[in-house]
Amino acid sequence: MKRLALALLASCATAPLEIQDYPCPPQGTTLTYASFGQRFIDTNCSTCHSASAGSRHGAPENFQFDTIEDVHHRADRIFVRAAATNTSMPPGPVDPPPDERDKLAEWLACGAP
Ligand code: HEC
Questions:
Q1: Cα–ligand 1 centroid distance for 35 (angstroms)
Q2: Domains of the chain by residue range
Q3: Does position 1 have pLDDT exceeding 70, yes or no?
Q4: Using CA of residue 30, residue 83, residue 108, residue 61, what is the dihedral sign?
Q5: Structural contact between residues 96 and 44, judged by C-beta atoms closer than 8 angstroms
Q6: What is the DSSP letter of 94?
Q7: Is 48's C-beta closer than 6 angstroms to any atom of ligand 1?
Q8: What is the pTM of this model?
Q9: Which terminus of the chain has a smaller tally of CB atoms within 10 A, N or C?
Q10: Is the C-beta atom of 59 inside 6 A of ligand 1?
Q11: Arithmetic mean of pLDDT over the chain
Q12: Protein residue with its CA nearest to atom 24 in ligand 1
């Protein structure tokens, strides 16, 4: 019981940053799907979150990020799992560098153009 309470506390302490907490900069973003988003997703997510992934390693069928429309549809969840200080995706061991996660946050916050 005590262990459960501690586990709950720990998960609260690491509540993820949400997309609505991260404003698009006033000047907007220069990042686009073509210049940034597609490559980020291909490099870090598509081995599991693609319709053509050989083995999805347990990634849910309804979370695939093959097109810009897929990304728009799941933008809030992609943000919570992978953008800025959120690092629960990809599940590792290879992690995108922090500046790439910051770019992902800006791009998503600006509507993923
Ligand atoms: C090695 C395989 C793998 C890679 C790579 C991967 N994922 Fe996942 N993903 C999973 C698995 C397994 C689950 C289901 C378990 C879970 O939710 O933690 C999942 C679930 C998700 C979900 C649905 C659950 C939710 O919180 O809404 C989202 C969104 C997600 N991943 C985003 C991403 C993003 C964004 C990337 C790339 C930055 C990524 N994943 C890379 C395996 C992967």
A1: 23
A2: 16-109
A3: no
A4: positive
A5: yes
A6: S
A7: yes
A8: 0.90
A9: N
A10: yes
A11: 91
A12: 77
